[in-house]
Design brief:
By secondary structure, the chain is α/β, with parallel strands linked by helices. Helix content is 41%, strand content 13%.
Length: 376
């Protein structure tokens, strides 16, 4: 059997996503900006998609901006907010464990003269409110901290950060990258207290090529691209209705409360079994999102073990898919030993993950350790 356990990289398309995509391909395939019947039908489809995603995010339809994915949404949030707010200051705070689409955007803003400060994290990749407060000043215009870390599964104190900004009466906009949280934890941008929030389709069993940025009413950001008047000119260009339809279809199936207990039980059993194996270290915290388990086989290169597991039909990753095999900056920022960092694997679950798949992973790790010992 194949055990697909790399769901934090991407998830397989669900049937509802395929159904909505077929509607966009076969029925409402027109340009939603066209004023004739075919175009108006496509515009109706786009409105239905916006309504479905708004319901899943518990927000209003007009607050959503469709993008090509999480990377574009994160870039639009950081650059758009920084440029719009630079009259108020130049300081930007980002956590040390953000996705590359946030960290590299922040690096570019620093090169342009913005005062970018990195919030340190603890052993499990979690930021401290004290560190946020220490870096916050009256010239801070933007804070960006993810809801859930994509490698360790650590849940960041984003609601507490929002409360801190409010308490300090900060003018800073607060952006949350919620790509790994959406569909897994109950999410409401208003409840979180943020100004900007990023989600992506292919992490919730939708297609690649679609994402969204939630923008709080009254918040102004500047566009990164220019052209037509689609989406109020903030993200111009003909909307990719097929991908957006798949996103909406997947969003209709988002029910985090329904799956969280079962996935948590699966994760707990898997971690308990891992801890009984010799030479295995669990890097994720016990209170991390149960969909992500980061583990290490010290002194055994991650790529070797990953390939061994792949040959057995077990699909895991050696970190974020965006890292392309480079040593994890997330685990490094968390202060883990280099031997742990270079031997770490990420096992990521979905709502469809089975106990049999996790057992296959455990059996594969046992076999890998036995094989390595014999060769040693």
């Amino acid at each position: 059997m194949q055990a697909y356990l790399d769901n934090s990289a991407t998830t397989p398309l669900c049937e509802t996503a395929k159904q909505w995509m077929r509607r966009a391909v076969e029925q409402d395939w027109g340009n939603p900006s066209s004023l004739h019947e075919v175009g108006l039908n496509a515009e109706t489809l786009l409105s239905d998609c916006r309504a479905a995603l708004a319901k899943a995010l518990r927000c209003k339809e007009k607050e959503l901006l469709f993008t090509s994915g999480g990377t574009e949404a994160n870039n639009l949030a950081l650059f758009g907010a920084a440029y719009a707010q630079q009259k108020n200051g130049s300081r930007i705070l980002v956590s040390a464990v953000e996705h590359p689409s946030v960290l590299k955007a922040a690096q570019q803003l620093a090169a342009e003269g913005f005062d970018v400060r990195v919030i340190p994290v603890d052993r499990f990749g979690v930021v401290s409110l004290k560190d946020v407060e220490a870096l916050l000043d009256d010239k801070t215009i933007l804070v960006s901290v993810m809801a859930v870390n994509n490698e360790l599964g650590s849940i960041e104190p984003v609601e507490a950060i929002a409360a801190l900004l409010k308490k300090k009466r900060s003018r800073a906009l607060f952006h949350i990258d919620a790509v790994q949280a959406f569909g897994k934890l109950p999410l409401s941008p208003q409840k979180l207290g943020c100004d900007l929030l990023t989600v992506s389709a292919h992490k919730i069993h939708g297609p690649k090529g679609a994402g969204a940025l939630w923008i709080k009413p009254g918040v102004t950001i500047r566009p990164r691209t220019f052209g037509g008047e689609q989406q109020n000119g903030l993200r111009p260009g003909t909307e990719p209705t097929v991908a957006i339809a798949g996103f909406a279809g997947a969003a209709t199936k988002v029910a985090p409360e329904q799956h969280l207990a079962r996935v948590t039980a699966l994760r707990d059993g898997f971690v308990a079994a891992l801890r009984k194996l010799p030479d295995v270290v669990v890097n994720s915290a016990d209170d991390a999102l149960p969909y992500i388990v980061n583990l290490a086989l010290p002194h055994h290169p991650a790529e070797v073990v990953l390939n061994f597991l792949s040959d057995r039909g077990v699909c895991v990753s050696s970190g974020s898919a965006c890292a392309k095999g480079h040593r994890s900056p997330v685990l490094t920022a968390a202060g883990l030993d280099p031997a742990i960092v270079s031997s770490s694997l990420r096992v990521s679950l979905s709502t469809e993950t089975t106990e049999a798949e996790l057992q296959a992973c455990l059996d594969g790790i046992r076999a890998a350790l036995d094989t390595i010992r014999r060769k040693g």
